[in-house]
Every structure is written in structure tokens, then in C-alpha cells.
Amino acid sequence: MGRSSMDPAFHDFRPWNEGWLIGAKRALKQQQVWAIRFFLDQHRRLRDRALFDFAIDSKLRGCDVLRVRIGDVVSGGRVRDRGVVIKQKTKRPVQFELMDTARKTMRRSWSVAAGH
Q: Strand pairing of 74-75 and 78-79?
């Protein structure tokens, strides 16, 4: 549905996303990544730290990160070195390596959640 130029409100119309950056964003710098990690650690947000580390290592979209199940990254009670996830948008499997920091925070958050 369009707008008529005869409508008095037409000239006051402003798009909701005017002035916003649209499209792909710049990657986080290493200093920004460490600042986020520090903030999450200071505020004891262990679950968020584990999700953040996982997202950084996997380079998945947010929707794909949130769809990951524990069984995708854990086997036999230990965090795997590599994981495989099927992307929602492309329906293709993507393999990624979990670095040591991500595995440690995942282990810590699960032990806290389990009450150990």
C-alpha cells in the first residue's frame, strides 16, 4: 500500500529505519571480544559467556546458535572439540572447532546448572 502525495501526513513520513546501519556489520575486534568477556565474567553471567564464546568460535548466525542442542556439542559428558550444525537458512551442515576457552566456559556453566 502506497502513500498519496496529496496526503498532508505524506511530507512528515519518515522510515522507521532511517539513519540505521543496514546489512552486514563489521566483525568485532579482538579488544571488543575481550571487553565483552570481561563484562560477562564481572557480572557472573556464565550462561551468556558460554553462548558468546560458542557464537564467536562457530561464526554461526544468532538463530543457528540458539537452535544448538547440548547433544550437538557434548558427547559422553564431555564437550567435543568439533561440532556440526545444520544451518537454518541454507540447510547445509557446517563444521566448526570449539576452542579451549569456549569448552571451559561450557563445562563451568553446565556444572553450575547441575549443582556441582
A: antiparallel
Query: What whole-number distance in Å separates Cα of residue 53 and Cα of residue 32?
Result: 13
Report, at the CATH architecture level, how domain 28-114 is classified. Answer: Orthogonal Bundle (1.10)
pLDDT digits (tens, 9 = 90+) for 38-61: 999 999 999 899 999 999 988 888
Domain boundaries, the chain: 28-114
Q: Tell me the three state secondary structure of residue 86.
A: strand
Give yes or no for a contact between 37 and 49, defined as CB atoms under 8 angstroms apart.
yes
- Which candidate, 83, 78, 26, places its Cα nearest to that of 54? 83
Centroid of chain to Cα 91? 18
pTM of the model: 0.72
Kindly state the helix (H) or strand (E) to which residue 42 belongs, with its residue range: helix 30-42
* Residue 65 buriedness (CB in 10 A; 0-12 / 13-18 / 19+): middle
Q: Give the integer Cα–Cα distance in Å for 114 and 1.
A: 53
